Amino acid sequence: MFYEPSTRTSASFDAAMQRLGGRTVVINTDHSSTKKGETLADTVRTLECYGDAIVLRHPDPDSAATAARATQIPIINGGNGS
Question: What is the C-alpha separation between 44 and 69, in angstroms, rounded?
Answer without folding.
Answer: 10
